Amino acid sequence: MSVTTLDPRTALVVIDLQQGIVALDTVHPAAEVVARSAELAAAFRARGLPVVLVNVAGLAPGRTDGGAGGAVGFPEGWADLVKELDQQPGDITVTKHQWGAFTGTGLDQALRRRGITQIVLTGISTSIGVESTARFAHELGYHVTIATDAVTDTDAEAHARSVGTIFPRLAETGSTADVLAQLPAPAGA
C-alpha cells in the first residue's frame, strides 16, 4: 500500500543507524539510507514532530550464539549514532538489547505520552530491526509507514521479502519523497 496520509501526530523512528551497523556490507549503500533518514529527521523536527533515534547495544537475554548468556563484546563506539542524524536534545533516544525497538525500552509509553498514532520507519536492517519494530508497532495499534528507500539489509533476499511481502501487510510503504509530500507545512511557514 502506498503512502496515502500521515496522522497529525506522527513520529519518525530511525532504527540502528549507528557506527557498527552502517559499517556493515549492505544491499544498498548505507550512506544513502543515512542521508534519507537525516532528511526525514530534519523535516520532522521542522514541523515539531518527534524523532526517535534507536541504537542497539547488546543481545536479548537467553541467546546462545553470543556466548554465555548472550554475552558479546562490541568495539568502542559501535553503538554510537551516526553524526549525520544531527541528534538534537528534543529527540527521543532508545537503546535496545533485542531486534525490535518496543520490547523492554519504554518506547510505547514515550510515544503515547506525546499522543503519537503513527510512526514512519527507516534504518538498518530491513528484515531484523525495522521489520521487528514494524510488526510490534502494528500489533500495538500504531499506523505504520516505511520509507523503503531509507531501509537496507545485509541480505538481499531478506530485504526483498520484508519490502515485498511483509511490509505491505503491516504498513503503507513508499519513498522518502512520498513521506515528505505528506508532511504538513513547517511550523511558521
TrEMBL record:
The record's annotation in CDD domains points to: cysteine_hydrolases (cd00431)
Q: Which InterPro entries match?
A: Isochorismatase-like_dom, Isochorismatase-like_hydrls, Isochorismatase-like_sf
Q: Which residues form the Isochorismatase-like domain?
A: 10-178
Which keywords, in A-to-Z order, does the entry hold? Hydrolase
Source species, domain of life: Bacteria
Q: Name one GO molecular function term.
A: hydrolase activity
Name of the featured protein = Nicotinamidase-related amidase
Classification from the root reads: Bacteria, Bacillati, Actinomycetota, Actinomycetes, Kitasatosporales
